[in-house]
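Data availability (excerpt). The following record was deposited with the supplementary files.
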Amino acid sequence: MSKNKALFLDRDGVINLERTYVHSPETFHFQEGIFELCRDAQKLDYLLLVVTNQAGIARGYYSEAQFLALTTWMIREFDERQIRIERVYYCPYHPTHGVGRYRLDSSDRKPKPGMLLRARHDFNLDLTSSLLIGDQLSDISAAEAAGVGTKILLRPGVAETPAPEDAYHVLDSLDAIRLRFFSSLTADSSAPLKCAGTQRPQAVSSAGVEFAERESGGQNGSPR
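Predicted structure:
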């Protein structure tokens, strides 16, 4: 059985503009170029997966229910643009600042690779053929630990910079990433991997419990 390939997306700072503990549609502003990038990646048969630390839940700034409501809204915004987010993986724990049951040193909290490894299992992924886009070095470290083939650090306003030992790419916009890695003229699609296309999108926590299944119709931030 051939394996799938994925585009892993951090949420805050990649899908949406980085703000302090975003937890409602009113404060959630999509990053310029995110829909175009995802649409082009989808055309090249990449599964779109979100992997996000949510320390705001751990700290008690907002509830898991609020996060899941926002996630459902976000997925519908992608739906309306014919873009399918396959799944949202999130870690609601923090090892030192978590309140109550959320105080936990979870293997899913980036820079640990737990969420990526669970996605590999869930979607039969070839991680060496997959990409991750993050805005923090913790994202890059998680991808490196999981064996993701291409790692991209998004740093708006910073010119393209060679990373140490070419371990990852640094680009300043989602448009630049799209043109470099997902243009039909430059992407290697000689042996495309097909989307699984059988599972309805959902948000999955570190505890492995599935939430917020989608209905059929359709660096000034906080530490995460």
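Summary of structural features: The beta strands are 5-9, 46-53, 85-91, 131-134, 150-154, 161-162, 169-171, 202-205, 210-211.
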